[in-house]
Predict the structure.
Amino acid sequence: MLTTSPPARVEAATRVLAASVTRALNSPDHPFPLARRVAEIGDDGGGPGAVRVVGADVLAPYLLGDRVPGHDDIEAVRAAVREFPAPPPAPHPDPVWAARDWALVRALAVLGVDATEWEGVCAEAGDGSADPGATGSEPWPTWAVGMARLSTLALPHLEGATRTQALARRTDLARGMARAMLRRDHHTAARLARWLALDQRSAPEPLLGSALDHLALLGVDESRTALEIALARRIAQPEH
Amino acid sequence: MAMSTVHTDRITVDDLVHAGENTEMPSYAAPQGAALLALAAAALLSAEPDDGEPIEDHDEGVVQNLACAQAF
């Protein structure tokens, strides 16, 4: 159990959980008992908080492999949603929470779980766009940052408006990734690389392979960056 | 868990959920810093590189950054 004090505890828990998901993605033959991982990290807010931060990506080892989540694994996610609810939609709905909870509900639906009525799920959950009021015509630097923030939507099973935008503006994704790499912001670069990986087979991006190799060298010490890289590589594989 | 701890944890989760790009990067590379980037690059282009250092490597590679930006 992590014993650091808040808010460092949640940040540390997020790093540990992200590393655990990364290991599961890189070792598809090993089990991934999510509920046990969360309990090991700490049920006192750290583990459930980390589940909320990692979002739908905690289900990636199940969605992108042959693993089947147990009832306790799903309950761990449900408890995290209940403990860390999305903010209320009034007076202004939060588009980031709405999009992330849309992704989580959809990912759970792929696994056969109906989470639409779960306590704590954003009441306005929906796949909007990368930024409030975005029209898809924003300047590429701003738009790319918004897309990086929503990288948890970049999973093969999540078809929606954000993915449509990502496919339509792949050049802007590549620009954003290159810019983030120039800024040494490896996490943002990896998040955008993941969006590029999503449609890599239908719209190949020649920079992607080199960029992922580069990021793997420089960003491997940051577990959330390593998770994005592992997801990008997994998503780009032919079977997905 | 104490209420204040729960509140702090929720704020931390919300901050991490909304985390965008790293704002601690050099200001010339921020989205709103394009004008500053152009100014800095223009100043460098008229500067004399130090000790035979290639101008593209001068001042932490800011000219390289400009070259990449122009390539886009």
Remarks:
- Chain A has a mean pLDDT of 90.
